[in-house]
Amino acid sequence: MMNIEKYYRQSATAYLNASLISCLPVIFFLAMFLSIKLNRLFLLLIIPFCLYSITAFVSYLLQKRRCERLANTFEETKVKSLLQSRTVLLSFLPAPSLRMLIFDGEGIVLGEIRDEKFALIRWYLPSFLDGLRSKKYGFYNGENMLQYQFTMRKHSIEIRNRKNQLISKMDEKKTDKAVQTSYIYDDKQLVLKRSLAFTDYCLEKEGGLILANVKKGWMPKDWQKRFLDPNHPVVSIHHSAANKDIIHIYAILAKIFAYKDH
User: Fold this and answer.
1) How far apart are alpha carbons 33 and 44 in whole angstroms?
2) Bigger pLDDT: 125 or 74?
3) Taking the model in full, what pTM does it have?
4) What is d(CA 102, CA 172) in angstroms, rounded to the nearest whole number?
5) For the chain, which terminal residue's Cβ has fewer other Cβ atoms within 10 angstroms, N or C?
């Protein structure tokens, strides 16, 4: 069973790996510079990789310290149903595209949405280049069993079940407002509204009913002893949302946060 302590441990390992991976281009470019005697300006190429390596290593130390603070504070409990949980917290593991973990207030992982392909080269691609290709995300429950698949294209999202049967398709349409996007499926429409700082989001149904809110920097007080980073996005889903609506909400969230920790 995954919990926030194990998440911090796994996150620390991922940041350490990212730091080491970003050193490879530095070694390569330095070897070329020393062997071919290129212009010193060539060394500017290694600066972004050095900065990222240092940043990732600092993140590794931070996550390691958080893991140590929460050591041995969790007991094995039964995993709750993701679709029945109306207030959840999102966290992200370093990855070329997306590894989004969904926690309940007790610090237990209810599920995960992750890219199904993590090629090494994708660590080095900027998000605008990697985003040109369609991507397939797996939606897993708390026991790491595949439930749904989201296929992301530029202006659409296909949702398939675990048997790879198409159950829905959302078409994304821009509106006349830069901070709003419409998603249409099954003759329904969800309007995504963003804050100007792109930190908070809400999804509205027809008639203005807010189906889901995503707020960053806000967390219930009793959650703070388990989640040591106050900037985790917290998702609140309206009690009237059906299971199918919730699946669509998570598909949209996957598209929003696709490169959160790239």
Assistant:
1) 11
2) 74
3) 0.81
4) 24
5) N
